Amino acid sequence: MITCVNKTNNYETLFTNGRHQAICDVPAAKGGGDTGFGPHELLEAGLAGCLNIWLRIYASNHRIPLAEITTEVSLHRDSPGLAVFEYGIKLSGDLTAEQRQELLQAAKSCPVHQTLSGQISFKSLTG
User: Is the pTM of this model over 0.90?
Assistant: First the structure.
């Protein structure tokens, strides 16, 4: 569970899981102090981080010589009611074409990718 607590500067917000903490905020142009990642950037980071970790685990478990991986994610909300996560994966290492394809296919089974691909609903725990 993530808990957020407002800080004294406009929209600056501390978030924590009880073990680690960081700051999110909004850009100065939107009235914030730009002291941390924006909320939508955190969604992008969640997917990019999971893809990166998931593929390293997959490569290790399948003895694929993955030396380095870079993942990039952009969230596009151009159409009302539609969120599109666009991602890129750069793989480095002594990989065959088949291993590269296997890793790119495995990306679709990343847990955060699976979560975001499914039906999503919200349940309020307050009032």
Answer: yes
